[in-house]
């Protein structure tokens, strides 16, 4: 049986790198990307880290530092980042038959079919091709297990002499590097577990490989045993080629400004329910229950308010109009005059495959007609951009929308946002 070999490739400071692809002027400047409502730093280049900007730093606290350090600051542009991720994974498909998309900027590849001596060169070729075709720099970690590939990827980022590729396939080299790798940085070891492991004398990944797997159960539960086996080179996790069925779907947003009227709340939750319906249909699912929640800002002195309401549906549905009706009922039930809301959202539970939804005995709807209408709406929005066709319930002005005051254009998905070239 051929030994397993996994590679983990991810984009370096992915959100920031995507911004640099379309603005060469910031190639050597520090760059940060902010969270929704331009709240805090969620992505930083190495230059920004060198200035002392930490992950999660509120923007209002680092604004002066950003000005002084000539930091390029961007609102998050998830449409752009998602499409760049899709393009990168299209490249990965040229190098490996089995690819698992782990997150927006990380993917696992199965390299078991390649000879061990060829894998490092292959990884360099992969990095070079991704950079040439998308402009995004990457690092690659290789190992006989997914956990070791993760460790190798982290080492490749830190040690510049590795030229972006680290291979932990060799047991001797692996043992040396694991003895220098902090245990808290191992995939699956959380911050709370680190102190418990330290009490057992475990401070590095190498220490963890020498720990009795049964002793790891207390600080790390049964997951700890799997981590130790994976660090020892025994693959316990295979690639997930079929995405597991989702157990729930949520669409939540912080408001661009406080919501103080029921009408504004109804517009917001209607927009979230419409979007949740799109997600359901994309995954071929339907929801039986919808929960609406809303709360005030807990940190600015506003009167505290937090409430949620769950609405059941006659039959599980992915029809955005049905979901909007349920979300509106929930919002009306939880609303309290005088509330000053900072965030709201909808959560869909009890998900089932759409084709397995039983028909309601009473009060059912014409599913085929609804499905045709939703399919037509999805097709128009896919061609002309999300929100081209939507429900009137979501409103027009949408003063409650999340702020993206420094968002770059969505270059790859919106023709109307492409730069215009003029002659003469």
Q: Could you please describe the fold and organization of this structure?
A:
Keywords: DNA damage, DNA repair, SOS mutagenesis, SOS response. By secondary structure, the protein is of the alpha+beta class. The chain is 38% helix and 20% strand. The chain has 13 helices and twelve strands. Helix 11 runs antiparallel to helix 12. The longest helix is centred in the middle third of the chain and has 21 residues. The N and C termini lie far apart (66 Å). The mean pLDDT is 90.
How would you characterize the largest beta sheet?
5 strands, mixed
Question: How large a portion of the residues is in β-strands, by DSSP E?
Answer: 15-25%
* Highest CATH level, the class of the largest domain: Alpha Beta
Element order: H for helix, E for strand = EHEEHHEHEEHEHEHHHHEHEEHEH
Strand order, sheet with most strands: 5-6-1-7-8
Family: Belongs to the DNA polymerase type-Y family.
Enzyme class: transferase
GO cellular component, one term: cytosol
Subunit structure: Monomer.
Core attributes:
single chain; 424 residues; alpha+beta; Alpha-Beta Plaits; five-stranded mixed β-sheet; four-stranded antiparallel β-sheet; 13 helices; DNA repair; EC 2.7.7.7; SOS response; DNA-directed DNA polymerase
């Amino acid at each position: 049986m051929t030994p397993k070999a996994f590679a983990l490739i991810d984009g370096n400071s992915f959100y920031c790198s995507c911004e640099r692809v379309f603005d060469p002027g910031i190639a050597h400047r520090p760059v940060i990307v902010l969270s929704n409502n331009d709240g805090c730093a969620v992505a930083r280049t190495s230059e920004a880290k060198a200035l002392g900007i930490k992950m999660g730093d509120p923007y209002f606290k680092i604004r002066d530092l950003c000005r002084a350090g000539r930091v390029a600051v961007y609102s998050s542009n998830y449409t752009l980042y998602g499409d760049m991720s899709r393009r990168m994974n299209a490249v990965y498909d040229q190098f490996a038959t089995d690819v698992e998309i782990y997150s927006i900027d990380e993917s696992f590849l199965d390299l078991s079919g390649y000879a061990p001596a060829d894998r490092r060169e292959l990884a360099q070729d992969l990095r070079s091709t991704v950079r040439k075709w998308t402009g995004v720099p990457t690092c690659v970690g290789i190992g006989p297990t997914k956990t070791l590939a993760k460790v190798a990827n982290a080492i490749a980022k830190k040690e510049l002499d590795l030229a972006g590729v680290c291979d932990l396939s060799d047991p001797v080299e692996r043992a040396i590097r694991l003895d220098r790798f902090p245990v808290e940085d191992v995939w699956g070891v959380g911050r709370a577990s680190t102190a418990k492991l330290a009490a057992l004398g475990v401070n590095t990944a190498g220490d963890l490989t020498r720990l009795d797997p049964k002793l790891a159960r207390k600080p790390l539960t049964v997951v700890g045993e799997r981590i130790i086996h994976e660090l020892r080179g025994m693959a316990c996790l295979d690639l997930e080629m079929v995405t597991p069925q989702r157990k729930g779907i949520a669409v939540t947003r912080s408001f661009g400004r406080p919501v103080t009227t029921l009408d504004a709340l109804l517009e917001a939750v209607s927009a979230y329910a419409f979007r949740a319906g799109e997600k359901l249909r994309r995954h071929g699912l339907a929801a039986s229950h919808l929960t609406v929640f809303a709360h005030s800002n807990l940190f600015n002195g506003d009167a505290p308010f937090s409430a949620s309401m769950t609405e059941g549906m006659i039959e599980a549905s992915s029809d955005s109009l049905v979901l909007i009706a349920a979300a509106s009922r929930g919002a009306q039930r939880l609303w309290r005059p005088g509330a000053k809301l900072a965030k709201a959202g909808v959560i869909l539970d009890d998900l089932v495959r759409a084709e397995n939804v039983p028909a309601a005995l009473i009060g059912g709807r014409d599913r085929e007609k609804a499905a045709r209408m939703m399919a037509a709406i999805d097709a128009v929005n896919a061609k002309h951009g999300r929100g081209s066709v939507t429900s009137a319930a979501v409103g027009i002005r949408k003063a409650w929308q999340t702020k993206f005051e420094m968002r770059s254009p969505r270059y790859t998905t919106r023709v109307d946002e492409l730069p215009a070239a003029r002659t003469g």
